[in-house]
Design a protein that fits this description.
The complex is a heterodimer of chains A (about 250) and B (about 110).
Chain A (H helix, E strand, L loop, with lengths): L12 H33 L4 H11 L2 H12 L4 H12 L1 H13 L4 H9 L3 H12 L6 H26 L12 H10 L6 H16 L7 H27 L5
Chain B lengths: L2 H25 L7 H6 L3 H15 E2 L2 E2 L6 H16 L2 H17 L1
Antiparallel strand pairs in B: 1-2
The chains are: A mainly alpha (about 250), B mainly alpha (about 110).
C-alpha cells in the first residue's frame, strides 16, 4: 500500500469505509442482539459455566451452530457428534467464502485470515451488497467494519444473557427485524431474470424443505436456487445465440 | 458434561467453522475453479436471502399460512413495497415492524 494511503484517521478512505460497514450492520443488530442474549441465558441454564459460555461466542462465533450445540450439550450428546453437527450447520459458509473470494483475492493473508474469521451470514449479506456497488479499492475496510461490529455486538449480547440469565420476553417481534432487513438487501441483487429465478426457486425450496435438520433448510434450497439461476442464464445465452445475437 | 469435553466442543467447533470460512478465501484460489462455478457465485446472495426470508414470512409453527391472519406475511408484503419504493433499510424495517405491531393490536 502506498504511503499516501497510510493515514489511519477516521476520515481517510479506509476510515470512512470502516465506519460505513459498521453503520450498515446496525439494522441487522436489532434482530441479532436478542439472539445473543437468549444464547447466553440458554447456555448458562444448560449448565455451562459463564467463561465457557462466553467462549462459544468468542471462538466459534456462529449463532445457529452455537444454539444447536447448547441444545445437544443439554441432551448430553457426545462431543464428537456435536463438533460434526457444528460442521454441517456451518457448511453454508463455504458458499459465502466462494462468493467473496474473488473480491478479496488480491489482499495479503493478514487481511484474508481475519476477514474469514468474521464471515457470518450477516457479514456476508452486508459485505456482498457493498461489493455490488463497485468502487471497491477500500471495500475490505467496509467488510472489516461490518464484521467487527457484528462480532462486538455478539460478544456483548452473549455477556448480557449470561449475566442476567433471563430470557427477554419473546413475542415482542424484534426477531422480525431480520427478514425485514434482508428484504431491503435482496432487491438490488435481483438485477435480471436469472437472479429472480434463483431467488424465487430458493424461496420455494426453503418452504418445501423446511423440516430438514442442521440448518440444511438454508444450504440445500440455496444450492438448488443457484442451480436454477445458472440454468436460466445458460438457457437465455443459448436462445440469444440461436437468434444470432452472438455470445 | 465435564470441563474437558466442553473445551473439545469449543475448540473443535472453532476449528471446523474457521476452516469452512477460510476454504475459498485462503485455501482454494478462485481461478482454479471451473467457469460454471464462478458464474454461479453471483446467485449466492439472492438465493440465500430468499431462503432466509420465505420461511419467516410464510410459515407459522412450521406450516404454510397464506392468509391475512398471518401478520408476518402482511407486514412483510408492506415492507417489501416500501423497500421497492424507497430502497431504504430503516424505512423497510420501520414499516414492517409498525404494521406487525398494529396488526397485533387488532
Amino acid at each position: 500500500m502506498s504511503s499516501s494511503n497510510r493515514e489511519a484517521g477516521l476520515f481517510s478512505r479506509p476510515g470512512i469505509e470502516l465506519l460505513g460497514g459498521a453503520r450498515d450492520q446496525l439494522p441487522i443488530l436489532l434482530g441479532v442482539i436478542p439472539f445473543g442474549v437468549i444464547f447466553g441465558a440458554l447456555a448458562v441454564s444448560a449448565g455451562i459455566p459463564a467463561f465457557e459460555a462466553q467462549s462459544f461466542s468468542l471462538f466459534i462465533f456462529a449463532g445457529s451452530a452455537q444454539f444447536i450445540a447448547v441444545s445437544l450439550i443439554a441432551e448430553a450428546a457426545s462431543p464428537f457428534l456435536i463438533v460434526l453437527t457444528i460442521l454441517v450447520v456451518n457448511l453454508r459458509h463455504m458458499l459465502y467464502s466462494a462468493s467473496l473470494a474473488p473480491h478479496v483475492y488480491h489482499l495479503a493473508n493478514r487481511w484474508k485470515i481475519p476477514l474469514s474469521w468474521l464471515l457470518t451470514d450477516e457479514a456476508f449479506i452486508i459485505a456482498s451488497s457493498r461489493y455490488r456497488r463497485g468502487n471497491i479499492e477500500f471495500a475490505h475496510w467496509y467488510y472489516l467494519g461490518t464484521g467487527l461490529m457484528l462480532w462486538a455486538a455478539w460478544q456483548l449480547s452473549t455477556f448480557l444473557g449470561i449475566a442476567l440469565g433471563v430470557l427477554i420476553p419473546p413475542g415482542i417481534g424484534l426477531d422480525f427485524a431480520l427478514p425485514l432487513t434482508f428484504m431491503a438487501v435482496i432487491l438490488p441483487t435481483l438485477t435480471d431474470r436469472p437472479a429472480w429465478a434463483a431467488a424465487c426457486s430458493a424461496g420455494f425450496f426453503s418452504i418445501l424443505l423446511t423440516n430438514l435438520p442442521f440448518k440444511l433448510d438454508l444450504l440445500i434450497p440455496a444450492i438448488l436456487g443457484i442451480g436454477v439461476g445458472l440454468g436460466v442464464e445458460m438457457h437465455s445465452v443459448r436462445v440469444k445465440r440461436a437468434n444470432g445475437d452472438g455470445a | 458434561m465435564n470441563h474437558s469435553e466442553l473445551w473439545i466442543i469449543i475448540l473443535g467447533g472453532m476449528a471446523v467453522t474457521f476452516l469452512i470460512r477460510l476454504s475459498f478465501i485462503l485455501l482454494i484460489p478462485p481461478d482454479r475453479l471451473p467457469e460454471w462455478f464462478r458464474s454461479g457465485l453471483r446467485f449466492v446472495p439472492p438465493a440465500v436471502l430468499a431462503a432466509l426470508i420465505a420461511p419467516d414470512l410464510l410459515l407459522l409453527d412450521g406450516t404454510l399460512h397464506l392468509t391475512f391472519a398471518n401478520h408476518r406475511l402482511v407486514a412483510g408484503l408492506i415492507a417489501m413495497l416500501v423497500a421497492w419504493r424507497t430502497r431504504n433499510t430503516w424505512f423497510t424495517i420501520g414499516s414492517g415492524l409498525l404494521t406487525f405491531g398494529l396488526l397485533g393490536l387488532l
